[in-house]
Amino acid sequence: MKKFLLIIVALVVNLNSALAQEYSKAYFAGGCFWCVEEYFDDQLGVISTISGYSGGRTKNPTYKQVTFEDTGHVETVEVTYDSTRVNYEELMNLHLSNIDLFDDSGQFCDKGKSYRSVIFYQSENEKKIISKQLNKLEEKFKKKIFVLQWKFEKFYKAEAHHQDYYEKNFINYLLYKSGCGRQERLREIWQ
Questions:
Q1: DSSP secondary-structure letter at 111?
Q2: Structural domains for the chain
Q3: 180 an active-site residue?
Q4: pTM for the model
Q5: Could you read off the pLDDT of 6-50 as tens digits, one per residue?
Q6: Which one from 32, 35, 109, 180 is the annotated catalytic residue?
Q7: Is 94:119 a contact under the CB 8 Å cutoff?
Q8: Contacts of 36 by beta carbon, 8 Å cutoff, 6+ apart
Q9: Residue 77: which of 127, 42, 123 has the closest Cα?
Q10: Longest dimension (CA), the chain
Q11: According to DSSP H, which parts of the chain are helical?
């Protein structure tokens, strides 16, 4: 009986390890992390999103520090995804189609260093994928693209009230999103 239980435990551990290995993480910044969470949560193959901060030098930053001080961080979303259902390039293209590629001072109504557009790469392959797509977009639009590429170092989870804000505060979120002119600007770019 004991041997049988050990075999069952080993099978469960192996199954959990195999499932966990299929999940990958990617990090994207595109202005307000509430909006970035929303479009990634709608993507088939995305397991979860977490709002936070990345790219700076301050350890365990707060929203107030990132927004009003020079921490170097940008509002970032950690995307956990099933790589058998969606790949990194598809996620990157989804991100690029939901930001203003030409704004070097933030995104939509959110301005400042903490709202810049950044795609974080974790490998040379991801860096190549990003560079290739950004070059294609510059050729297509014949304009300079202001999306930064940064090597991923560390991610800090944002305060609890920022997580899933667009779901928990739906009316406030819609007013914010509409007031920022996000959809209108995206239609202008991608018409």
A1: E
A2: 22-190 (3.30.1060.10)
A3: no
A4: 0.88
A5: 455 445 545 554 555 579 999 999 999 999 999 999 999 999 999
A6: 32
A7: no
A8: 28, 29, 30, 49, 51, 75, 77, 95, 98
A9: 42
A10: 70
A11: 2-21, 33-41, 63-68, 88-96, 124-141, 165-168, 170-179, 182-190
